[in-house]
Design goal:
The complex is a heterodimer. By secondary structure, chain A is an all-beta fold. Chain A has no helices and 11 strands. Helices cover about 0% and strands about 55% of the residues of chain A. In chain A, strand 7 and strand 8 form a beta hairpin. The chains are: A mainly beta, B mainly beta.
Chain lengths: ~110, ~120
Amino acid sequence: DQQVKQNSPSLSVQEGRISILNCDYTNSMFDYFLWYKKYPAEGPTFLISISSIKDKNEDGRFTVFLNKSAKHLSLHIVPSQPGDSAVYFCAAINTGTASKLTFGTGTRLQVTL
Amino acid sequence: NAGVMQNPRHLVRRRGQEARLRCSPMKGHSHVYWYRQLPEEGLKFMVYLQKENIIDESGMPKERFSAEFPKEGPSILRIQQVVRGDSAAYFCASSETSGRLYNEQFFGPGTRLTVL
């Protein structure tokens, strides 16, 4: 049962353009959502998060949008840079009852020159 | 402040052998989490430990897998009688106790286990 889904395994975007990565979840008990970035042979590193009481959180070039009614969140990167090329994982947690993160399967972003 | 340390980074075992994966959390962190990433999949939660206690092991396979986080020393994930299906990247994360809604988990670089 995949509770967090990233339906696009890969995405290619030109440098300077906007990258939009999508994530859907099924568990309505999730109340905190995170995006992690992962380079090959490294562990995931935290990028940005959002609480379910908000619908947008922005940090520099990165913005996360949350649509609770659709159980959908997205990560916008603008402008995209070659160094952004990595695998991006969406993760969710029910902060009230659990400490474990539930991850999506990841989207590989390739930013081309 | 050193990050989460995992060793070994790469581990090769033959079927039937034991694998021991070690994780040293960040300084000041008393919570440890283990996740497994199978090829082409996302990370899947295995177990959550605090010092000397297993808090949540709902993601651990029922047999052959065990985890500990002793009062002194690193957390250990132990896999007995490994099979080819255990080949994966195993990531450890740690967090502190802060009273916030969510205690950020910091990940180590992972141990890549290959079972021949």
